[in-house]
Structure formats: structure tokens, C-alpha cells
Amino acid sequence: MNWRRTLSYLLWPLILASALAVVLLGMKSGHGVLGFNLTYLTLALTVALLERVMPHERVWLENDGQMMPDLAHTVLSKGFAQVLITFMVFMGIADWIAPAGGGYWPLAWPLAVQVGLGLVVVEFGLYWKHRFAHEWPWLWRFHAVHHSVTRLWFFNTGRFHFVDTVTGLAVGMPVLLLLGAPRDVLLLVSAITAIVGMLTHCNIEMRCGPLNYVFNTPCLHRWHHSKELSEGNRNYGENLVLFDILFGTYFNEDRCPPVDIGIAHPMPKTFWEQVKVPFTSQPL
Predict the structure, then answer these.
(1) Residue 19 — pLDDT band, cuts 50, 70, 90?
(2) 281 vs 15, residue with greater confidence
(3) Would you call 215 helix, strand, or coil by DSSP?
């Protein structure tokens, strides 16, 4: 059993570092977007296997009947986001805007430091957008589609109402563009966000230790999906927990997060009903 415990501490940083290394190789070969897409597909297959080998919750391996809606939401929402990022890179929008905003972005800094800065800049908008999505009833109606899941696993990482996705995109990448961040920074920040997003939703036994005070880890995000508002309305960070710590919404107690997750009101079972329900008077 010792090897499983040791592996549980190594998995999160190992998977993140390995995936980023492959993305960087793709960028150096001139195929950054293709490398990212192939990396994400490989990551999904790897996480799917690990969920079966060492699951965090075995009950979450059971079919919840939502695979098709989950897939449809992913294609519509995350697919749109990926197309937008690809458009920005291939059409050179980032390079065209960068000179205008270049005076605000430290282009001479090492790439790794620029990416770190990019994560912090993007995180500020994403944190407040996510927090408002929980605290403002109108935005919650859309975000509730994501929180209606009754189990966490890699397949429902992209289960977001398209309005929820668009509002998230509006407060993230456009800020980096206006500041003049180059395409490599945009691509790497996007890649980290996608990788961390899948890892936070995975059903793999992981222990993240001190990393819980820097990154949004699966250990923290499982609390965020709790039905108890004192636990669920916490840990809003997308990639980092910097602003959760600063604004008092960080939560991580020394006990297991709840297995019974979801929302108080029922959610329609079909994709199209889930798309329509936020626009109705049905309570969510």
C-alpha cells in the first residue's frame, strides 16, 4: 500500500509537468496548438485509466446517466473556447495587438515568469467571475448546470452552460491581449488552465500537500462541489488560490470532502433542457 500513497503525492505535479513539457515541445517545433490538442487528448486517456486504477471515490465510478449531456456541453462550450484560442494564435491577433499594448507587458522577462504573471492577471478576473456566479442568482442559474453533477470525474470537466463559458472567456484572455501578452504566453496560460481544470475534476486519489496553498487542486475543488454552502461557496480559483487566500474564501479542512455532491434543486436530464432551463422560472 505504501507505493499507492507515495504515488498519490507525486501524481498531480508529475502529470502537470509532463503535459506542459509536451506542449512546450510542440511550441518549439512550430505546432503549439496541435501539440496542445494532442496533449489534452492524451491527458484525458491517462486520467481515465488512473481513475479506474486508484479512484478517490469508488461510488463516482458508477454511471450517472449524464455522459451524453456532459459531452455535448464540452463540445459546445469548451470547443468554442478552443476555436477562439486557435483563431487568436493562427490569425496572429496576439502578435498584432501586442505592439500596441507592449508597453504594459514585460516582453523582456523570461517566458516562465511571463506565464506566471499571466496566470495571476487572468486569475483575478476568473476568481471574481466565479464568485459572482455563486453569489448573484442570475449568474448562478447558468453555473448551476456545472454544479448539478453528482460525481466528479474527467468526463464532466467541460460541463458548462455556454453562457457560463462566454462570461469566463470575457474576463480572461482579452485582458492579456490588451496588455500585449505574446502568443506563447496566451497558449501556455490556456494550456495550464485546461490541464489544471481536468485534474481538479478527476476522480483520482491525490494528496497535494503544500501545493494546496498555491494551486487549485482536486483536494480543494471537491470542497467547492459540496452541497453545504459554507463549503461549496469557497475555493473559487481557476488555477491559483491566491485570491481565495487574500479575500477569505480559501477552505481546506482536515477531513474527507463530501461524496454526496450537487445542487439543492433538480436539474433536467437532457442537454437541450439544461441549456434552456436557466432562461425559465424553474428554481435552481
Answers:
(1) very high
(2) 15
(3) strand
